[in-house]
Specification:
Layout lengths: L8 H12 L4 H10 L4 H16 L7 H8 L4 E7 L2 E9 L7 E7 L5 E8 L21 H7 L4 E3 L6 E6 L2 E6 L2 E7 L1
Antiparallel strand pairs: 1-2, 2-3, 3-4, 5-6, 6-7, 7-8
Helix pairs in contact: 1-2, 1-3
Length: 183
Amino acid sequence: MDAVHGFARREFQLMLLRRMADFQPDLVEAAYTEMGAMKADYMRAHNRWQSMLRSRRAPSGLALYRAALGPPDDETPRRFGDVALRACAWALPGLWPDLRWEALVGAADVVVHAWLVRATDAPLPPLPDLNGVAPWSCVVGDVLARHPDVEQVDPVVPSQWRLVSGPLQLIFVHGLYQAVRRD
C-alpha cells in the first residue's frame, strides 16, 4: 500500500486529465486550475499512476483502485453473454459530479475495462445532433443511449474509444467525449 500512499480521488482526476490534454488543452487547463493545481501536478499524477500500474510493489487490478479511491461507492453484477463481471463505481467530486469512474472486474479481481460513465441518478444530456456535441458534455453510454445506430470502434490507444456515425468519428478519452473528426 505504500506505493499508493497519498494518491486519492483528487490525484486520480488530475491523472485522467493528461490524455484529455491531447484533445482539449484549454478545458484541461481550466480544470486543473479549478482544482487548485498546476500542469506539473497533473503530469506528476499521471506519471505516478503509470508507475503504480507497472510496479511490482503496488497492488494490481481492483486492489489498486481500492487503494487509490477507497471502497467503491457502488458495486453491481453485470453479465456480458456468459461472462459474469462486477461493475465497481466511484464518484469523482469536483470536475465531474454527474459521472462515475467505473471498473468492470472479472475473476481474481482483474480489471477488464475502466472509464467514466454517467451516474445512474443523473439525467442523460440532450444529444440531438452529433455534429454539435460539446467537448466533455457526454460519455460513451450517453451517445449509445440517444443514438443506438452508432458503431463502436475499439481504438489502438487504450485510454481512447471511438464511435462512428456516417462520416463522423467521435473521440472519447477515458469514456468522456473530446472531439469529432469527419472522414
